[in-house]
Amino acid sequence: MSNATPVRAAGEVLTHRQTLTVMVGLMLGMFLSSLDQTIVSTSIYTIANDLDGLSLQAWATTAYLITSTVTTPLYGKLSDIFGRRPLYLAAILIFLAGSLYAGSVHSMTELAVARGIQGMGAGGLLALALTIIGDIVALKDRAKYQGYFMSVFGVSSVLGPVVGGAFAGSANILGFDGWRWVFFINLPIGLAALAVVFFYLHLPAKHVKQKIDYWGAGAITLAIVPLLLVAEQGRSWGWTSGNSWICYGLGVIGIIVFLLVERRAGDYALIPLRLFRNITFGLSSLLNFIIGIGMFGAIAMLPMYLQLVKGLTPTEAGLMMITFTVGILFGSITAGRTISASGVFRIFPILGTGILTAAAIVMGLSLGVDTGLWVPGLIAVFFGMGLGFCMQPLTLAMQVSVPPKDMGVGTSTAAFFRSMGGAVGTAVFISMLFSLAADKIASGMKDAMGSADYLKVLKDPAVAADPANAKLYDFFKNGATNDSLNDTSWLHHANPALTRPIVEGFAQSIDTVMLTAAALTGLAFLISFALPNKKLTDPKAAAKESVSAH
Fold it and tell me: Which pTM value belongs to this model?
């Protein structure tokens, strides 16, 4: 057998070189999943305009998050039963199929379906990568190796918005619309990941005799999908409409059924309820959920502000997001190395949620039409740092608060709650943005019509005859509605004096959304003080010491 192939028999510890070889495959998989979360953030504006569905854009993100959320705990549980490798290979193949379809779509509805398929693969990529590290690396070294992973996460997060923006800004690449390469770029990277994982990731085969919790998987789907559906469609249906109440009811029934099914399932449950008796595990799950809402809200809102309000191109908005990912990288590595050296973790979620809350408040109070670009750039550094202080410590805390046999479930539950929060945050915040924007723009235009200077420009024959203003005058005729805001590609080409009330309406709406996010992260800040103030210890090491003592 080749020395380059890492094999881990029971009790055998991988060498540094073997561990690094295994990690290449895991990193490529993580690169795919994290790249695809951020590559769409700056390009979705262009994609939605091209497919004529800007107000439907939440579906493309929400579909990805729904399926990745629902499948994440399933991957974790199945990997505890059948082993990590087959599940990891399946996740990559599903992700590649979704990417190929996403690059070939012709409507926003098709794109949402394709993103859903991608999400089914992505649900396994991140959670299983972190689980495998937990399998092969002791706690005292794990932060060092997770530092490499956060570097990959940071680099792909930096590259994602820039690459996505560059593709979206190109009219045509090799005969395809530029934005389609946002999805096609996954194919060569994914095939490389598949090859490396197939040839080099050889963990011991695992076939634990245990039933699979299909009822739990069905119940969790019944709980999540209707609630996300109403979060996305509530503003068009009406929050108290019949459709909304049906979704609320199904969601509540799903949650109750899930809890009952999981209680009955006991140890073979998708997410065993006994794990929540551990206060660290329970509180970390809740914090991951709340932080997920705030995190994805900010990731969605920043590029929207930069493009809708400041008129940046997708590429420029992507470059501005670099400061956000630098903050994540710094926060994650600092937290990981400190925890590795001291075992103390509680201070980081407290610091992280505090920084997140402050950054969201400043963002909500300072982002206007005339705000200098350095302001969102600087705030984004602190937002990223706050997330970095929260994400890695909470995942690590959940890993070590469960028995070794539940490592897959423990790690995937952290990703599950963060993704669930993210799905809720994206759907609610984008719905909130367009709902608020329609009202604020209508109000701003009404005020502007009372201004003699504004009316003078509006009635100027030269302005009315300018082709760049044609869609703006159509907008004035139709009024500010969700439908008229579907395509805003004309906004920064039209007369700036006339578009001022529209841009101000978007800016004010984004500010309100960010202050709402600040209230949520503030709640997480208060909850984080309840985390136990104790050092993290490795359950595997403790188990070995117990065996040797006997």
Answer: 0.79
